[in-house]
Amino acid sequence: MMKPDVKVVILGDMNVGKTSLLHRYIEKRFQDTVSTVGGAFYLKQWGPYNISIWDTAGREQFHGLGSMYCRGAAAVILTYDVTNRQSLSELEDRFLALTDTAHAECIFAVVGNKADLTDECAIVQTSEVGEEEEVSPSTLHKQVFMEDAIYFYKQIIKYKMLEEKDVPAAEKMCFETSAKTGYNVDLLFETIFEVVVSFVLKKRVNPPQTVVLRHSLKTKRTKSPCCS
Amino acid sequence: MSIKAFELVPALERTLLIGDKTWINIECIECCGRNLYVGTNECYIYHFLLEEKTSTSGKLTFIATKQLHKYLGLKKPVNEIKAASALNRLMVLCDCSVNLLNMINLEPVPTGAKIKGVVAFTVNENPVTADPFCVEVCTISMKRKTIQIYAVHEDRVQLIKEVSTPEQPVALAADGYFICLALSTQYIILSYNTGVSQDLFPYNSEEKQPIVKRIGREEFLLAGPGALGMFVTAAGISQRAPVHWSEDVIGAAVCFPYVVALDEEFVTVHSMLDQQQKQTVPFRDGHILQDFEGKLILATSKEVYVLVPLPLENQIQDLLTGRRVEEALVLAKGARRNIPKEKFQGMYRRILQQAGFIQFGKLQFLEAKELFRNGQLDVRELISLYPFLLPSTSTFMRSHPPLHEYADLNQLTQGDQEKITKCKRFLISYLNEIRSADVANGYKEDIDTALLKLYAEANHDSLLDLLVSENSCLLVESAPWLEKHKKYFALGLLYHYNSQNEAALQLWMNIVDGGLEDTTRSDLYEYIIDFLSFCSDHELVWKYADWALQKNEEVGVKIFTRRPLVESQTIGINPDDIINYLHKYRKAVVVYLEHLVFERNIQKEKCHTHLAVLYLDKVLGLHSQSRNGSEELTSARNNLKNLFRHSQLYRVHLLLGRIKDTDLYVERAILHGKLEEHDKALEILVHRLKDFQAAEDYCLWNSDGKDPLCRQKLFHMLLALYLDPAVTSDALVMAGVDLLNNHAVEFDAVRVLRLIPDNWSIQLLSPFLGQAMRKSFHSKCMAEVALGLARSENLIYRYTKVKSRGNAVALSGKKVCQVCRGMFTEPVFLRSPDGALLHTHCATKSSSPSVTVQTYANP
Predict the structure, then answer these.
(1) Which of B194, B197, B241 sits opposite A39 (nearest CB)?
(2) Nearest chain A Cα to B186, which residue?
(3) Which own/partner pairs from B483-492 qualify as long-range (CB within 8 Å, at least 24 positions apart)?
(4) Taxonomically, which superkingdom (chain A) (predicted)?
């Protein structure tokens, strides 16, 4: 089995389109997916690096697996549905804590999917025009705006007790995408891969602490909110 | 979606163990080598020998022979048996203690060593201690929230470590320092070395039975929430996607690349490679599923079975038969580490090839090409699908067992012409690509011949490219095929490539003559001429020259004129032979001679004369036909005049004799000029032709590049003709005046003045006189300059002479001769211009010619 150099994890509530996003990126098409069971795993060759991408299950039932999937991750993609305010709140309430096991220098991206339902600009088909049925005009009310995502991103930084200057800018790491039309999907993954690759390079320069047990425990102690 | 990965084979029949004692239940099993141990609820241990037999039909059966049974005397069920074959011991968990028994006679060890207070235990198959006579055992202790690690020796046990856990452990597996534990609400990984633990994921052990299995180095399989089989490494991360098995899984095991799970009704098989369920075996009342050294054993409470994995090759073949190429390739790649490298490579290649043919059958050519290439397919396998493409002489036999099910292309496409064409197009591109690759080695003839056939059939332009470049087309095989498809020109190329130039020529000539039809080249005649002109086989050239010249002399003669120069100088065709041969082709011989004379500058009188005679014949011929000069005549005369003027080699007298009685005056004048009979020439020009300009030109080009006096002589000659008192006419006089005025400098003015009649006015001659004066004055000035220069030069020489003689040369007894280094004994000596003194006799010996020697007499 090929050993991945770095891990990227996609988190988010059920039915926000995590699997579709990944599928759109890998296969360049949109396909109706079934609810993910447990989790799925893709290896992506990015230049000389092997990047493993974990597509997690959003269902409550599999919530317990999240921490393990996030362990040692170099990037976490927190996904919500722009037509569903609740899906953003869930990220903060349920999913953010799962990232405690991620690598200390893990980067975050906040992604609002299904933008094609609310924004005209996202309807532009990027490929295979006519293969899919006509995209319905924006009928659904947009519940989450870019400013909300940016606000949440800053919350993450606070939660991680990091300085804003040490992490990629919120404007760079917040996206509105559409797995259906492909809008911003490549941009999302490619932005993340580029940041993550520099992470691998740094890791190679400073040999990693192989005993992840000890390491993650330490980070846990330092990172967990003090009020517990 | 299904595949047969495993076969369920009975190992221990009901009758052998239970018989009619229906209250007996199997509690646990251990299998070690051929030894099968069964522990029962009645506190018995049974020992069987398990023989594996393969029948002639390939069917695998197991025969169990009972060896012993032993009652442990505790009236409690036997919970767990583990063999430690290196110690010859069985570790048996019964009534909360692990007892050590002899593996063979099942007697307890004499020391009575045991581990007390054990709920469950596991053997660490990858222990950190390297002691071969020691087994590391991890136990869940009866003490709350505690696990213990023991070193078990032949007849003693030793507690190594005790670690407390956050909750009560339920199940465990060990690898190295790592213990994977199912606690009451979650799974954790614990390092007993450091005592550090790491949470994996929550799980409710009260709802479902947890499963913890070590499946390889530092990797565990756990029963996760929502019917998941989760893979976790010792580092606490997942490197494989989970498999989705059923809700009520009792037991699970890994037999690469499959995860086998047991529930109440089925045994399910999932692939770890794509997480898909691959096989379902109905199995009721399953109770135990465990793997022992790679052997999967399955038991109900009464019987024991073995799940025998089918060879991966067979599984892959089944997938390929079902045309499930992707799955087959994934399985083959996944199987890499389970099969010896050499065997794997051969197998994998074959699978790729088979997969390639499946894609080919679906007309998925891109995929097929990739697979063929990666599988290093013997391309003849592919060619052989196409009827008649392989040479009949080919010894190729399709591989056995066959790589595909197709007899030929017609069967594959069911005669669909469009598909056949597509397949052929694919083969063309594929063969083209691999022609130069390594895989083509040894089959180049087959490949090129097949390619030639395909090209010919498809009327493909590349046919000619193939034939004119390096190729290995088989002649006997290709020739009839090309004939069949009327590719005669190509056939000629093929003959030529095979050094059968004569056959090629005959074929091509036949096309030109209309005997065969092939429109490949509209300029085939020129092509043949070209071919012959570069043909080094002279016999062939002579043989077919007639044909070529008869078609068109001017073009045909290129056979000779275009021959590479280098060749004709050494072993080439002798020009004389060619001239002799070309006699009957009047136009051709002229062209050839022109080639020799003008292009190759051959300095042979014979050629020049011959050409001149031929030119002359032509001119005379045309001349006699049409009095008033046609264009053709003018051109012919120009050629003739040109040759007369510029060649120095032809026999002038001969030609002069030929044209003496004709009115080719200009030509005659030129010939006279060649004989230096300028008076005759000029007379013709002036009196016969009255062409004064021509006469003037004659003077100019005849004296061109010669002494100025020669030109002067000619002009005077001309002037004398103009002023000849015998034939005076105004025209001549005017011509004379013009000549003088236009070419004043060419004349000797004094002689002219004496010649001209006295009655000519100064006015008439003023341009001449002016120029003559100027020339004369110019000459005088030039002469004065020359005189001055000569004087000064003389002065310099005189100065040098005086200077060199000016000083006295002292000769003493101490001076030595520069040549012989001897003393001067006589008063006579020599002095060289550079001042060296020499003996007179030495100076004559001295070889240096540059030294000019002056003799001095001693005063």
Answers:
(1) B241
(2) A64
(3) B485/B456, B485/B457, B485/B459, B486/B516, B486/B517, B486/B518, B487/B456, B487/B463, B487/B518, B487/B520, B488/B516, B488/B517, B488/B518, B488/B520, B489/B464, B489/B518, B489/B520, B489/B521, B489/B524, B490/B456, B490/B463, B490/B464, B490/B520
(4) Eukaryota
